[in-house]
From TrEMBL:
It catalyses: a ubiquinone + NADH + 5 H(+)(in) = a ubiquinol + NAD(+) + 4 H(+)(out). It comes from Ancylostoma ceylanicum. InterPro entries: NADH_DH_suC, NADH_quin_OxRdtase_su_C/D-like, NADH_UbQ_OxRdtase_30kDa_su, NADH_UbQ_OxRdtase_CS. The keyword NAD applies. This is NADH dehydrogenase [ubiquinone] iron-sulfur protein 3, mitochondrial. The keyword Protease does not apply. It holds the Pfam family Complex1_30kDa. Belongs to the complex I 30 kDa subunit family. Residues 124-243 form the NADH:ubiquinone oxidoreductase 30kDa subunit domain. Its main location: mitochondrion.
């Protein structure tokens, strides 16, 4: 057994330090293939490196015969939280664009602000949905040609409880912008499908979940709930029980209607402060927690 181990170690040394020993034949321009070499051939080099090979053999012989490397206990380093660094130059450009948009459309843009540090938001009047989004898409300095999403928000403590949020992206300038407007249970909002074709299903989803009506929508009907469903599930006052569930029963191989079964009938409800469960909406101001941008022209730097 020891003889085989020594032979394996010797072959390992030859492969590491003397790979040319495996290629004793070489091409000679006069004699063709030959195993005779001159004094300058690389085959003579093992004589020089032989002492190093012997030293490596002793090292390998002393080491345990194992393919597993020694495991060192690595020090556990706690990763620091990743904090997004704000690009001040980008913030400056977005702020200037927000002022420019408010100057071009003063009738509709009510406020310009930053959210999460460097995310531009335009707060507009409901009648300005079409003019503002047409401006953002068609203006040469904007080119927000990509509609990312349209969503709704329900804040029951406000007079106009519903917010409709439009997120657009400009591939030309690699910038994002959100347009926020408001409405209630009755007042409709103009559909933007004439500007962004992709808004069709987004607006249907907002209508289905929140009950916001979009004028001039080509096909405004429910998209997530079943036909004949009553109510709008994403409203904060939507009851958690009392409705039928529609699902496919794999055993019966058909659609079944049955009462909704929830493990928890209601999470938390206080008659005195019913909406304290949602602390993000304690402040009824639409601009709470945001950095408002001054719409006046940026003062020139002192020379």
């Amino acid at each position: 057994m020891d003889r085989h181990i020594r032979r394996a170690r010797r072959r390992l040394v030859l492969r590491v330090l003397m790979p040319w020993q495996r290629h004793r034949w070489h091409w000679d321009t006069q004699h063709g293939w030959s195993d005779t070499v001159n004094s300058k051939s690389p085959v003579m080099l093992p004589v020089v490196v032989r002492p190093f090979a012997r030293g490596l053999q002793r090292t390998i012989a002393a080491a345990p015969l194992s393919t597993s490397a020694p495991v060192h206990q690595a020090e556990k380093k706690q990763k620091k939280p990743t904090v997004l660094k704000l690009d001040e130059e980008k913030r400056k450009r977005l702020a200037n664009f927000g002022r420019y948009a408010a100057e071009c459309l003063p009738k509709f843009i009510q406020q310009v602000q930053f959210a999460a540090g460097d995310e531009l938001e335009l707060l507009i009047h409901p009648s300005g949905v079409i003019p503002v989004l047409s401006f953002l898409k068609g203006n040469h300095s904007a080119q927000f040609t990509n509609l990312t999403f349209v969503c709704g928000v329900d804040v029951p403590t406000r007079k106009n409880r519903f917010e409709v949020v439009y997120s657009v992206f400009s591939p030309r300038f690699m910038a994002r912008c959100r347009v926020r407007t408001y409405t209630d249970e009755v007042a409709p909002i103009e559909s933007i499908t004439s500007i962004y074709k992709g808004a069709n299903w987004y607006e249907r989803e907002v209508y289905d979940m929140f009950g916001v009506w979009f004028n001039n929508h080509p096909d405004l009907r429910r998209i997530l709930t079943d036909y004949g469903f009553e109510g709008h599930p994403f409203r904060k006052d939507f009851p958690l029980t009392g409705y039928n569930e529609v699902r496919f029963d794999p055993e019966l191989k058909r659609i079944v209607y049955e009462p909704t079964e929830l493990a928890q009938e209601f999470r938390k409800f206080d008659l005195e402060t019913p909406w304290e469960t949602f602390p993000a909406f304690r402040d009824t101001s639409i601009t709470s927690g945001y950095e408002k941008i001054n719409l006046d022209k940026e003062p020139e730097a002192k020379k």
